[in-house]
Write a structure and sequence with these properties.
300 residues; alpha+beta; Alpha-Beta Plaits; elongated
Length: 300
């Protein structure tokens, strides 16, 4: 093994600049890849948090509010309310439903806008009573919304997906964009590793040929090159893991968790998973290009 380590160290010294370039490229690309994994986890946590709280609010007609399903100047009748409630309960997407009266809506309005200039701008009769529908699956709501929104006595149906889905669409685009850029940089790193090993093997091609002719095994010939590429990958993975750890501590622990305590944030276990993924990718990217680059020199 002394010869193997000596050859690997000699190769690193001879190709120091290329090795440094590989380490830096691996560092940046693996950091982006790990950040993409953490971003994906954070989006999932936010979805679990907010989608679980999503309700569909069915606001009923009142005389001062216009709507396609409303009779002008009239509140929703008791018969219409009963029909709407029956349809909501019968829909398979409904988990449970609660009724909020005008007085309850007015009390909530007074609580939210207490002390503001609009606190006394509305009366109880001007408030809308509504049904608050909890969904079995927050992602399945279209059937209920389309059915209830056309019923007589319904002024409009408020669905929070209208506001949340665009946010999560952009968050998903951000995470996939981060992962996509990291994949391109990882490809560049693998090409750099392959070129570095190919140059080192070409410089020692006569020595490798002699070793092969005298019966040296493929493993014995290839091991110094594997150690060179693994060294670059491990250093790059270590730097990327440190970057992820620092980023998590500064961005999440010291700032996000302090500013927005009501949200679920990624933690050290998620960072550990991302670091493990980064390390695994680094090892694969160091081994595969090396095997490809040295295969021609393993033939007699």
């Amino acid at each position: 093994m002394r010869h193997t380590f000596a050859e690997a160290w000699g190769g690193l010294r001879r190709n120091a600049s290329m090795t440094l370039a590989v380490v830096v490229t691996m560092w940046v690309s693996l950091s982006l890849f790990g950040a993409g994994l953490l971003a994906a986890r954070q989006v999932d946590l936010l979805k679990d948090r907010w989608y679980d709280k999503i309700e569909v609010s069915v606001f009923l007609c009142v005389k001062d509010v216009k709507g396609d399903n409303c009779d002008s100047g009239l509140d929703a009748t008791d018969a219409q309310k009963a029909a709407i409630l029956s349809a909501i309960k019968a829909n398979p997407e409904t988990q449970n439903v609660t009724y909020e009266s005008k007085q309850e809506a007015f009390d909530e309005f007074k609580r939210v806008f207490a002390g503001s200039s609009i606190e006394d701008s509305l009366t109880v009769d001007q408030m809308q009573d509504s049904y608050r529908v909890k969904l079995v699956d927050p992602k399945s709501y279209q059937g209920l919304v389309s059915e209830i929104s056309t019923m007589k006595g319904v002024q409009f149906v408020q669905d929070l997906h209208v506001y949340l889905d665009p946010i999560f669409t952009w968050l998903n685009a951000l995470r996939w964009g981060t992962i996509g850029m990291s994949v391109l940089l990882l490809l560049a790193a693998s090409l750099q590793i392959g070129n570095t090993i190919r140059m080192a093997a070409f410089a020692r091609r006569r020595e490798l040929g002699i070793m092969r002719l005298v019966g040296a095994s493929n493993w014995y010939i290839m091991l110094p090159f594997l150690l060179e590429s693994l060294f670059s990958a491990v250093i790059g993975a270590a730097l990327a893991s440190a970057t992820l750890g620092v980023g998590l501590y500064v961005i999440v622990v010291q700032n996000a968790e302090v500013s927005l305590k009501g949200l679920r944030w990624i933690g050290w276990s998620d960072a550990g998973f991302a670091m493990a993924g980064v390390t695994g990718v680094a090892i694969v990217l160091s081994i595969v290009p090396t095997l490809i680059a040295t295969r021609r020199y393993l033939r007699v």
